[in-house]
Amino acid sequence: MKEKLSKIRLEALEQIASPDANLEEIKIKYLGKKGELTAVLRGMGALTAEERPVVGQLANEVRESIETALAEKMKELQAKALDARLTAEKLDVTMPGSPAPVGHIHPLTRAQRELEDIFIGMGFSIAEGPEVELDYYNFQALNIPENHPARDTQDTFYITDNILLRSQTSPVQVRVMEQTKPPIRIISPGRVYRSDALDATHSPLFHQLEGLVIDKGITMGDLKGTLEVFAKKMFGEETKIRFRPHHFPFTEPSAEVDVSCFVCGVKGCRLCKGEGWIEILGAGMVHPFVLSNCGIDPEEYSGFAFGLGIERITMARYGIDDIRLFYENDERFLEQF
Ligand code: PHE
Predict the structure, then answer these.
(1) Which end of the chain is less crowded, N or C, counting CB atoms within 10 A of the terminal residue's CB?
(2) Gap between the Cα atoms of 154 and 280, Å rounded
(3) Strand partners, 307
(4) In terms of CATH architecture, what is 107-334?
(5) How confident is the model at residue 103, as a pLDDT?
(6) Does ligand 1 come within 6 angstroms of the Cβ of 182?
(7) Which of 133, 142, 168, 310 to mutate to test the pocket of ligand 1 (most atoms within 8 A of CB)?
(8) Angle, in degrees to the nearest 10, between helices 23-31 and 51-88
(9) 282 C-alpha vs ligand 1 centroid, how far in Å?
(10) Looking at residue 202, what is its pLDDT?
(11) The pTM is what?
């Protein structure tokens, strides 16, 4: 029996040491209920009283050494597996990363922010109004009743007979005047809509920035001074402005305002189409009817308003000749700004 035990130990340890050892199988084969060591222990009844403790002790030693060997081998295999995984999954944090493309601000957004900065610097604050607007605010309150010819040039998209996509930012003037007591000094940038076919100079969606100042004793001189400061900040210190008489139903008197071409001075070039001047906005003194419509007494208060096209200004500034480029999101265009 002692030889049998020694043989079991030898065999088991050999098998455990082998590089492709199946530890679970080995454990069952030697230590399991039907295993070889168990079988030997079962046969101990046949031994003499003197032999029994000796063989018993040996059997325990054999079991222990097999168990220890199994446990050690298990540890070794686990360590190897971990090692293999660590090598396989090794990550070199010093390798250059794969570049993620970083976008930047759209030229229209940039222009809008610049405009906002300039006017905020002059004491204006920003007001917002809805793009889906009532006919009343977009037209009627601005002195454009039903069937007024000005509606033709600002045809827009109708949700119902009474609700439309605003064709200008001017309705924000009315909304602000209804809710705020003068003095008022606001700008209102945002999207406007017109039912124009898309071509190089027209788009059914574009952006305007409205300005409105109402106080006691505001004159055309204040309008001119404000726009002159704005033009110099936006287009350069040499810039001059020019007022041409015009008509808007909600201002009286009204003007279209040009800036001297910042490419050629006033000589005439490709950008200003030989004119020397570039039209940038519409403006005028707020019509007394509009003030009354908003509950402001035109005998006590006066004010001016202006509205500029953000696309137009951005196109002039960078010499962009097609408005569609702003909306196509072609990176080759956008990355230039
Ligand atoms: N709302 C006018 C337009 O879209 C521009 C404008 C604004 C004119 C304010 C005068 C005063 O054409």
Answers:
(1) C
(2) 18
(3) 210, 282
(4) 2-Layer Sandwich (3.30)
(5) 86
(6) no
(7) 168
(8) 170
(9) 5
(10) 94
(11) 0.72
Structure confidence by residue, pLDDT tens digits, 115-133:
999 999 999 999 999 999 9
Q: Where in the chain is the domain with CATH 3.30.930.10?
A: 107-334
| Residue 254 Cα: closest atom of ligand 1 | 10
Question: Rounded to the nearest whole angstrom, what is the distance from the C-alpha of residue 47 to the centroid of ligand 1?
Answer: 117
Instruction: Write out the two tokens for 160.
Output: 């119902």
**Whether the CB of 230 sits within 6 Å of ligand 1:** no
Vertex 220: Cα angle to 214 and 221 (nearest 5):
105
In whole angstroms, give the CA distance from residue 128 to residue 175: 9
Amino acid making up residue 57: Q
Selection from 260, 315, 309, 303 nearest residue 282 by Cα: 309
Q: Whose CA is nearest to atom 6 of ligand 1?
A: 307
CA of 35 to the centre of ligand 1 (A): 99
Banded model confidence at residue 8, pLDDT cuts 50, 70, 90: confident
| Residue that has been written with the tokens 């679970």 in this structure | 24
Q: Which tokens hold the place of 162?
A: 């009474």
Counted residue by residue, the chain has a size of 337
Ligand 1: nearest atom to the Cα of 208: 4
